[in-house]
């Protein structure tokens, strides 16, 4: 599966503007799409960030992630190898719960023993990436969707379980009731095969884009 390039993202904007007048107004207001291509090498870092940030405010998560990076060698980039010598006490000291520390160890061990090959994700279908990631402790469908969009730059992901997407759709489309997954999928059908770009603009419309 190929990651999007800048030219495809630009084409996606034009397609979405033509197909959906509601999205058109959002796209015009927000400008160029901010999905960054070429971040495949950072999948492990993305998973670490996701685990760290679970059930935390953005500010608290950034603080703890910054402390964790300070424990890492070579410029502070998290690597599976770097977690091996770290004690539970060291991980707890930066603000990680015992459960999150165990999740990070499980993730690191899977990469080190080869049961999780993140470098092969670029060649896998979206569903296969989701299946592999959701087998890891502490990683659910939302995280898998974020990896697909923001690390693998896959074009057609609609994270129906994301609260920001739910709120943005309800607001933009003037819905009285909170849309469930089926309603979101129906509304998003015209966005195929560029639902990732549509999602980015919906987040941006709330000024709530995941990083």
Please give a structural write-up.
This protein has 211 residues and is mainly α. It has two domains: 6-37 and 156-205, Endonuclease Iii, domain 2, CATH 1.10.1670.40; 40-151, Hypothetical protein, domain 2 (Endonuclease III, domain 1), CATH 1.10.340. The protein is built from twelve helices and no strands. The longest helix has 15 residues, at 98-112. The radius of gyration is 18 Å and the shape is globular. The mean pLDDT is 91.
Order of helices and strands: HHHHHHHHHHHH
Radius of gyration based on Cα positions: 18 Å
Provide the residue-averaged pLDDT. Answer: 91
- The tally of domains stands at 2
Number of continuous helical runs: 12
CATH class of the largest domain: Mainly Alpha
- The total of beta strands comes to 0
CATH topology of the largest domain: Endonuclease III, domain 1
Estimate percent helicity: 55-70%
End-to-end separation in angstroms reads 22 Å
CATH homologous superfamily assignment of the largest domain: Hypothetical protein, domain 2
Low-confidence parts, pLDDT < 50 over ≥5 residues? Answer: none
Specify the structural class.
mainly alpha
Percent range for β-strand residues:
under 5%
Q: Give the overall shape.
A: globular
How would a textbook summarize the main sheet? none
- CATH architecture descriptor of the largest domain: Orthogonal Bundle
Key features?
2 domains; 57% helix; 12 helices; Endonuclease Iii, domain 2; Endonuclease III, domain 1; mainly alpha; 211 residues; single chain
Set out the fold topology.
Elements: H1 6-19, H2 21-30, H3 43-53, H4 58-70, H5 80-83, H6 88-93, H7 98-112, H8 126-133, H9 141-151, H10 163-172, H11 181-188, H12 195-205
Helix pairs in contact: 1-2, 2-12, 3-7, 8-9, 10-12
């Amino acid at each position: 599966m190929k990651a999007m390039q800048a030219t495809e993202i630009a084409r996606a904007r034009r397609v979405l503007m033509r197909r959906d007048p509601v999205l058109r107004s959002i796209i015009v207001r927000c400008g160029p799409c901010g999905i960054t291509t070429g971040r495949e090498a950072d999948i492990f870092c993305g998973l670490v960030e996701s685990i760290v940030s679970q059930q935390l405010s953005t500010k608290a998560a950034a603080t703890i992630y910054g402390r964790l990076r300070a424990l890492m060698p070579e410029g502070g980039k998290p690597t599976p190898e770097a977690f091996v010598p770290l004690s539970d006490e060291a991980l707890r000291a930066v603000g990680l719960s015992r459960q999150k520390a165990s999740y990070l160890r499980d993730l690191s061990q899977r990469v080190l023993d080869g049961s999780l090959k993140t470098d092969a994700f670029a060649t896998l279908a979206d569903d296969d990436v989701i299946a592999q990631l959701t087998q890891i402790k502490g990683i659910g469908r939302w995280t898998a969707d974020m990896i697909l969009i923001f690390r693998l730059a896959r074009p057609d992901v609609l994270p129906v379980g994301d609260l920001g997407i739910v709120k943005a759709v309800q607001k933009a489309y003037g819905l009285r009731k909170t849309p469930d997954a089926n309603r979101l999928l129906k509304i998003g059908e015209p966005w195929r095969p560029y639902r990732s770009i549509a999602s980015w603009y919906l987040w941006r419309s709330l000024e709530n884009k995941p990083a």
